[in-house]
Amino acid sequence: MTRSRLLGLGLGVTLALATPQVAQAEEVTVTGPTAWTVTGHGWGHGHGMSQYGALGAAKQGVGWKQILGFYYPGTRLGRTHGRIKVLITADNKDVMVDARDGLRLRPLSGRKQFVLEKIRPRATRWRILPKGERSIVEFKVGAGWARWTSFSGAAEFSAGSRPVTLRLPGHVTADYRGALRSVDKQTVNVLPLDRYVRGVVARESPASWPADALRAQAVAARTYAAYERANATGSYDLCDTSACQVYGGANAEDPATDAAVRATRGRVVTYQGQPAFTQFSSSNGGWTSAGSQPYLVAQPDPYEAASGNPNATWTATLTSHQIEKMWPQIGTLGHLSISRDGHGDYGGRIVTATLSGDAGSVTVTGDDLRTLIGDGGKSTWFQLTPAPTATPRDVVGRVGRLLGWG
User: For residue 357, how far is the Cα from the chain centroid?
Assistant: First the structure.
């Protein structure tokens, strides 16, 4: 172990960092149908900030700046503003909204805006239908739709600072601040960055958590969005699901998380003057994992233990039959050669695993194995312990293949 002084966010925080270790190797021999008990730590990739770690730190009186400084060492605090474009993944046909006072429509090809309640006062809904390079605008009165006009290019609805109600498939509605834009047959929410963050924080961290944990989440979420915006090339900057970060629009807002956004207004984590790639996950299990950036390091996390994290240790099951079904080219599984990153229990997270059988072998990633475990596989930091006996499903699967059942 070496002692290093981290200058994250301009703060002198002294922490114990682990000396890099050589990846660990683990050999597992499989004889006949086998079932394993899977025991693991954490939930998610473990890069950057642990949300439960931020909770544990805040419970110990650690401020949000110090929390961010620990999880993103070598970074500083900066500021950014502007607008963000968010893909609404649940809506992929037209942009249909409820009529309301102040609802406006703006074609992106010009500067003119139309106040829709003045154009059709009795309309209950409006929609933009993309057709080729044009946007057709229709309104609803009673049970039927009628065409109002069309424009060249994309168009958007907005209502000033008030939210607009979007009609989603399946008779679902959701409220969004800013503008709802129809572009490339997609619905994109365009709004100021801090209003966007209000719709993220409560979806990513419970609003009941301490203020400093929520403030750290607000800054991490704002920075992640700013980083994606700086690197975007299409009609939107990022999406609204966990593939990016979860965004629920105005419906997700909460007074406690709104307060965290206001308290950190415009603040972002920067590296070399630019927004950092502030990845975060639910829990790192007590040790962060190295990521793609210099500030996404592998280090022990002293805060997770104080968080009451329910995913500090978890269990699941895995069978040889599942592996053979997923990778049939190996035939009957006979051996696993597992490479780990060398950090923490079991030798650390699984980096790769070579699966060898009587018909061949294949090398897969730790995430591939994690996915195979299903919902129970919460991270790549796990070990396999043989269960006392093979499961009935495993035995039936093996016998069935021998008899040519498929």
Answer: 35
Domain that holds residue 216: 49-83+193-304
Query: Would you say the pTM of this structure is higher than 0.85?
Result: yes
What local confidence, expressed as pLDDT, does residue 389 receive?
61
Q: What is the pLDDT of residues 156-192, one digit of tens each?
A: 999 999 999 999 999 999 999 999 999 989 999 999 9
Which residues of the chain register pLDDT less than 70? 1-24, 389-406
From the list 10, 53, 50, 68, the residue with the least C-alpha distance to 268 is: 68
Is 182 in contact with 130 (CB distance < 8 Å)? yes
3-state secondary structure of 153: coil
pLDDT for the residue numbered 261 = 98
The radius of gyration computed from the CA coordinates of the chain, to the nearest angstrom, equals 25
pLDDT at 394: 47
- Which phi-psi region, left, alpha or beta, contains residue 87 (left: φ > 0; alpha: ψ -120 to 50)? beta
Are residues 183 and 235 in contact, defined by beta-carbon separation less than 8 angstroms?
Answer: yes
Q: Exposure pattern of 346-381 as b/e (b: 16+ CB <10 Å)?
A: bbbbbbebebbbeeebbebebebbbebbeeebbbbb
Q: Are residues 157 and 107 in the same domain?
A: yes
| End residue of a domain, out of 273, 304, 335 | 304
Label each residue of 197-263 as H, E or C.
HHHHHHHHCCCCCCHHHHHHHHHHHHHHHHHHHHCCCCCCCEECCCCCCCCCHHHHCCHHHHHHHHH
Are 352 and 331 part of one and the same domain?
Answer: yes
